[in-house]
Amino acid sequence: MRAPRIKTAPTIRKELHTAGQCKRTLTLFGENTDAARDKFQEELEDTHKLFKSFVTENRPQLEIEMVATGEHWYGTRALERKLIDIIQTSDDYLLDASKDRDIFEVHYKRRRPLQERLASGIRAVVKGVSGERWQDRMLR
C-alpha cells in the first residue's frame, strides 16, 4: 500500500508531533505545501554549502566543484580525485600506525539478561547431572 492511500484509510489515524514551525517540513503522511518544499530545499542547499566548506578547509588540494556533485567514487577513482590519500586495507593501516602509536583492542561484553543466565545455568546442571549418570554407569 502506498503512503498517500494510508493517510486516507478510515482505520488509520495520523498524528505528527513536532517542536517548531520548521521541525518537519516534508512528510509522507501529511500534506506537503509549497512553502514546506521551499524550506526543505533551502535546508538541503545550506547543508551542502556547509559540507563543501568543511571539505575545502580539510582538503585544500581538492577541486571542490568537481567532486561536490552528489556523485560518489570508489577506490582508484576516489584517489584520482584526491578524495582519499591512499588505498590500503585496515590491517595495513593499523600496522603502519603501530610503528609510532599505541594501538588498543577494546571489547564490549554485553551483560546477558537474567532469564538467559538462568537458562544457561539450568542447562549446565542438567548436562552435568546426565553426564555424571553416564560416567557412573560406565564405571560399574
Number of strands: 0
Beta content comes to under 5%
Helical segment count: 6
| Main sheet: strands, sense, barrel | none
Unreliable residue runs: none
Structural class: mainly alpha
What is the CA-based Rg, rounded? 29 Å
Principal-axes geometry comes out as: flat
Distance between the termini: 69 Å
Percent in helix = 40-55%
Question: Could you give the order of the helices and strands?
Answer: HHHHHH
| Average pLDDT over all residues | 82
Summarize the structure.
With 140 residues, the protein is an all-alpha fold.
Keywords:
6 helices, 54% helix, 140 residues
Task: Walk me through the topology.
Elements lengths: L2 H6 L25 H25 L5 H4 L7 H6 L9 H8 L16 H26 L1
Question: Describe it for me?
Answer:
This protein has 140 residues and is mainly alpha-helical. It has a domain at 73-102. It is 54% helix and 0% strand. It has 6 helices and no strands. It has helices at residues 3-8, 34-58, 64-67, 75-80, 90-97, 114-139. The chain is flat and about 75 Å long. It starts with a helix and ends with a helix. The mean pLDDT is 82.
